[in-house]
Amino acid sequence: MALNKMKDLKIEEQERITVDYVKGILQPTPTCEVWDQIWNFQAKPDDLLISTYPKAGTTWAQEIVDLIQNNGDIEKSKRAPIHVRIPFIEWVHPAIGSGLEKANALPSPRTLKTHLPIDLLPPSFLEKNCKIIYVARNPKDNMVSYYHFHRMNKALPHPGTWEEYFESFLAGKVCWGSWYDHVKGWWKAKDQHRILYLFYEDMKKNPKDEIQKLAKFIGNNLDDEVLDRIVHHTSFDVMKLNPMANYSLVPVEIMNHSISPFMRKGSVGDWKNYFTVAQNERFDEDYKKNMEDTSLSFQFQ
Fold first, then answer.
1. Boundaries of domain holding 260
2. Does any domain span residue 298?
3. Is residue 101 part of a domain?
4. Is residue 210 a contact partner of residue 202, using CB atoms and an 8 Å limit?
5. DSSP string of the chain?
6. Which of 53, 211, 263, 287 is the S-S candidate for 182 at Cβ 3.0 to 4.6 Å?
7. Using CA atoms, how far apart are residues 247 and 81, in angstroms rounded to an integer?
8. CA 49/CA 187 separation, integer angstroms
């Protein structure tokens, strides 16, 4: 039995995308292969960029932004899957195509997505003074969500066991690098650039206020009725059933929702179901050490 399990794991690992480093940050190999093109991507002044660490509320923010831009028109937001409406600039996959090509084919004004840390962001975004929305999520929930995403997504390396993944995440040896460097880098940059920095936990607690904040930043004035419509349509339960937002249209060979759905729980505090007492103590110690040089703070429940 154990032998069969090992064999299955080996087959699965062979089917998965490999990874390599770009300037010390782990990335899927297809991204590494076109890195020069990504780095030299030409942003336009009216581009809007949504940036997050993976599994920090990216798709949620994308759907909200798309609805704000279309004044709450639900039908317009169903025109195409989210990854087509808002291209993921550094993503390359044989079955899904190139985010870069999709971005270059879009008419202006474009809305784009990235998971890149600020140091790897194509310089043209800051040079052209683009508006950037950043969403940060507490690292414990972020880790749990990313772990499950790795399990179901063959376009990422196999996470191993929860215990193994816990170590990898803590060491920053996961795709898109260290959570600490990511959230702190963008936090520092927000004072020099047009960056709206939001927190996943605030969006859960007061979705209407945070959506209003986003609308003002984008430059759209929304009335109460439109705001309420967006709050409803972007609630977790509604988005989970929306094929244009839940990634269910991606081939099962890449994303297997029966292992773990792309939209799994969307809650705050789920980490308590995974962290052992020892892991939690270890994490708290690591968090304290890594966050002492920043004014950034997070809500864990």
1. 2-291
2. no
3. yes
4. yes
5. -HHHHHHHHHHHHHHSPPEEEETTEEEEHHHHHTHHHHHT----TT-EEEEESTTSSHHHHHHHHHHHHTTT-TTGGGSS-HHHHS-BTT-EETTTEEHHHHHHHSPSSPEEEE---GGGS-THHHHTT-EEEEEE--HHHHHHHHHHHHHHBTTS----SHHHHHHHHHTT-STT--HHHHHHHHHHHTTTTTEEEEEHHHHHH-HHHHHHHHHHHHT----HHHHHHHHHHTSHHHHHT-TTTSSTTS-TTTB-TTTS-SS----SSGGGGT--HHHHHHHHHHHHHHHTT-S------
6. 53
7. 8
8. 15
Q: Which amino acid is at 165?
A: Y
pLDDT digits (tens, 9 = 90+) for 214-271: 999 999 989 999 999 999 999 878 877 877 675 656 767 777 776 665 656 778 888 9
Q: How far apart are CA 96 and CA 252, in angstroms?
A: 12
Domain count, the chain: 1
What residues act catalytically?
Answer: 115
Give a yes or no: residue 300 inside a domain.
Answer: no
